[in-house]
Amino acid sequence: MYSSKEERTKKLSDAIKTIIECIGEDPKRQGLLKTPDRCAQALLFFSKGYEESVEQIVNGAIFEEDHDEMVIVKNIDVFSICEHHLVPFTGKISIGYIPNRRVLGLSKLARIAEMFSRRLQLQERLTKQIAVSLQEILKPQGVAVVMEATHLCMVMRGVEKPGSSTTTSVMLGVFREQAKTREEFLTLIKN
C-alpha cells in the first residue's frame, strides 16, 4: 500500500500515461499532457469509499424512537466503477427499513449508499452491502434495498445494448419473510 495520497496519485498518473501510450496515443500531445494527473485524481475520487467507514458516516446519528412503520429514502443517485472492466455504472437506489425502536438520520442512508458505490463494485454486492450494513447498525425488523442501474460495460462494449438496465434487490427480515410488507415497499418506491 502507498502511504500518501501524493504517492498514489503519482503511481496512478504514471500508469495512465502508460495506458495512453499502449492504446497508440502520444501522452506528450498538447491535449493529453495533463490527462494522466487529471485521470489519477478522478480515479481517487471515484474510489474514495475505501477511505470511509459506516461508523464514520453514521457518527452517532442513531436515535431511540417509538416508530415501527416503514422508512424509505428512494431514488438516491449513485455512480460506481465496474470491477470487471473499470468503466462506470450509474443508477438509483431505494432503501427502506422498519425500525425496531431505533432510527437513523435520513441523510445517512444516502451517504452509506454513496460510500459503498465509491469503490470498485458489482451491482449485486453494492446492493447487499448497503442492506447488511443497515441491518447490523440498526437491528431493525427488516431492510429492503433496490437498485436500478445502467452499465457502460454493456452499453459501450460487449453486447452494446443502450437503454438496457439491471435491477438488483436485497430483502432482509420482514421484507423477506412477509410478502405483504415486501409488496408495500415495492409499490411505494414505484410512485
TrEMBL record:
One of its GO terms (cellular component) is cytoplasm. It comes from Cetraspora pellucida. This is GTP cyclohydrolase 1. SUPFAM superfamilies: Tetrahydrobiopterin biosynthesis enzymes-like. Keywords: Folate biosynthesis, GTP-binding, Hydrolase, Nucleotide-binding. Residues 14-189 form the GTP cyclohydrolase I domain. GO terms for biological process: folic acid biosynthetic process; tetrahydrobiopterin biosynthetic process; tetrahydrofolate biosynthetic process. Pathway: Cofactor biosynthesis; 7,8-dihydroneopterin triphosphate biosynthesis; 7,8-dihydroneopterin triphosphate from GTP: step 1/1. Its EC number is 3.5.4.16. It comes from the Eukaryota. It is an enzyme of class 3 (hydrolase). CDD domains: GTP_cyclohydro1.
